[in-house]
Write a structure and sequence with these properties.
mainly beta; 14-stranded antiparallel beta barrel; 21 strands
């Protein structure tokens, strides 16, 4: 047993630094895709897989072929959220200033404060977003081209830097934007097909604490030095979250570039009924950025210098992350009851199960440890094991006058993150969606839209998180306020 010891265990820490940077990048990806912050709104509240407006570039390019005029369609929105997490410690932890490497730990070193529910922490993200779509006038009344620039994913998060969630996430800023070019052709008066190609630009920055005791290479390094331990990915809580081994890490200026496509078909069996089917392909994303690890503790910077193992107070280098965005299949339907009433909705299936893990490569000369045979590059895998999800949404639209349109929306999205891997980097759950909005036709050419959209998860209590890391209660609420302008030409 060691109590804040300055002995041989630090010699193995050279194996850790690349893993730490890798896990930081992974958290960013998790936030962007399964946090409940994805797809705040694309187009107005009236847009969807059966709607004939500029946002069809995203929702269903086949609808462009039924547009009889050119169109500019753009708007701004403000996304605000309230995310709360109350951690529940269900494992046994030692006091943070002790360093017992193997169980059972001494009874006197058990931290009695890490038991049961901790204080609640919260994040209140606020992000301005926007989108622009341009549809060109039809060619021979059948062929239509469109282009769009929009942000389907955005997640700014900032929690208490020293809160009980710090080993999951402290803060993050993640955005993904699409630039899409589409074309559609009307094959017949009742059927059209369309397709689009998108360039996907991603950006991520984040900070967190990384627990060295959970890293495989750390435990292996200690074993080489003759120090038996229980460290590694399956380490018990007894040897996790020690103060000295919890190091601040940050991912900075990470960009990703990808290409994807979507295809769609729209059928009008009758004048009142519209059916739509779309497929959104996934994208191969490759985030590349810089990482930094705060190693400014004598445990890492001084104690084993005589043995040739000495770290800089700040270790920096390159990090990259590769993963695939999931595919989406959407079936939509709309029915015009009469001139004033319309109902529409859709069902979407998302293949999040493709995201079973993330693979990260990190590189820096400062990571090399010749004494342990460690080079400058390391590849690390983090399991996520996400599940496929469904998204069901329905809307009722009412036109009280020829110029005024109102709408109300209700929907549901299932959770992607299982209990085993959920954390504050992906505060996911069963989501209930609601929205109200409307449009006002200023003239035959100009229409204004205003919308309010809300989503919140059913409060989620987790008791089976792997290694007790994400146990506790999660709450999430997001509101989006948007205004759009449509100009026909």
């Amino acid at each position: 047993m060691l109590r804040h010891s300055r002995s041989s265990p630090s010699s193995a820490s050279g194996l850790l630094a690349p893993s730490l940077a890798a896990l930081a990048v992974l958290s960013a990806a998790a936030s962007a895709r399964a946090s409940g912050l994805d797809a705040p709104m694309v187009g107005s509240g009236q847009s969807g897989p059966t709607t004939r407006d500029g946002a069809a570039v995203h929702w269903n390019p086949a609808n462009l072929a039924f547009m009889k005029r050119g169109e500019f369609f753009g708007g701004l929105m403000l996304v605000a959220g309230d995310i709360r997490y109350q951690r529940n410690y269900t494992g046994t932890y030692q006091t943070p200033d002790t360093l017992e490497f193997k169980t059972p730990i001494s009874a006197g070193n058990i931290d009695m404060t890490k038991s049961g529910y901790a204080d609640q922490v919260k994040a209140n993200p606020l992000a301005p977003l926007g989108n622009i779509f341009v549809v060109l006038p039809p060619i021979k009344n059948r062929l239509v081209f469109g282009v769009g620039v929009y942000v389907p994913y955005g997640a700014p998060l900032k929690f208490d830097k020293n809160g009980p969630q710090a080993l999951q996430l402290q803060q993050a800023f993640i955005v993904a934007s699409n630039v899409t070019a589409s074309a559609a052709v009307r094959l017949h008066d009742i059927i059209s097909i369309g397709a689009g190609v998108s360039y996907v630009l991603g950006f991520a920055e984040l900070a967190k604490l990384q627990d060295f005791g959970s890293v495989k290479e750390f435990g292996a390094g200690l074993n080489k030095l003759g120090q038996t331990n229980d460290f590694g990915p399956n380490a018990p809580t007894d040897v996790r979250e020690l103060g000295t081994l919890s190091r601040p890490i940050a991912l900075k200026k990470a960009f990703s570039h990808g290409v994807t496509f979507n295809i769609g078909v729209t059928i009008n069996p009758t004048k009142k009924l519209t059916l739509a089917l779309t497929y959104q392909h996934g994208a191969k994303m490759n985030y590349k950025g810089k990482f930094a690890i705060d190693m400014n503790d004598p445990f890492f910077t001084q104690d084993l210098a005589a043995q040739g193992l000495k770290y800089k107070p700040l270790v920096q280098g390159d990090a990259s992350l590769q993963f695939n965005l999931p595919k989406r299949i959407t079936l939509g339907a709309a029915y015009d009851i009469n001139e004033k009433w319309r109902v529409d909705g859709f069902f979407q299936f998302v293949t999040y199960s493709e995201l079973n893990s993330f693979v990260v490569t990190t590189s820096s000369p400062d990571l090399a440890q010749k004494a342990l045979g460690i080079g400058e590059t390391l590849k690390v895998t983090l399991p996520r094991n996400w599940k496929n999800t469904v998204w069901v949404e329905g809307s009722v639209r009412f036109r009280p006058t020829t110029r005024l349109l109102t709408s109300a929306t209700l929907g549901y999205q299932s959770a992607a993150s299982p209990d085993k891997t959920i954390d504050t980097a992906s505060p996911d759950g069963h989501r209930i969606i609601g929205g109200v909005g409307g449009g006002y036709e200023v003239s035959q050419r100009v229409v204004l839209y205003a919308d309010a959209r809300f989503q919140g998860i059913v409060p989620r209590t987790v008791t089976t998180s792997d290694h007790d890391l994400g146990n506790g209660q999660y709450k999430l609420f997001i509101a989006t306020i948007a205004g759009h302008l449509k100009v026909r030409f």
